[in-house]
Amino acid sequence: MYSDNKEFREIIYRAVFEVAAADGGLEEVEKNALQGLLITLDIEEDMFKYLYDEILENDVSLENCYKVLECNADMSDIEIKRL
Q1: Phi, psi dihedral angles at 23 (to 5 degrees)
Q2: Which pLDDT score, from 0 to 100, does residue 67 have?
Q3: Nearest CA to 48 among 22, 21, 75?
Q4: CA-to-CA distance for 23 and 1, rounded, in angstroms?
Q5: Is the Cβ–Cβ distance between 48 and 34 less than 8 Å?
């Protein structure tokens, strides 16, 4: 239904991730389900690591941010916003 709206799919994924991690960790079955959901929602695999770092380790690296945005440090703000 929202296959053309990547931002909405990522919002859904983040919400599910936050619910799964609400107890302060992820069980193996939760990790597997979240990995499968990436495929279902057609979201890059880097999103799992990004959210894991942000939510569970509170260590979001700039490198992971660029990966999630599918850009690099050499790009201008305007170029990044066009993505």
Answers
A1: -90, 5
A2: 82
A3: 21
A4: 30
A5: yes
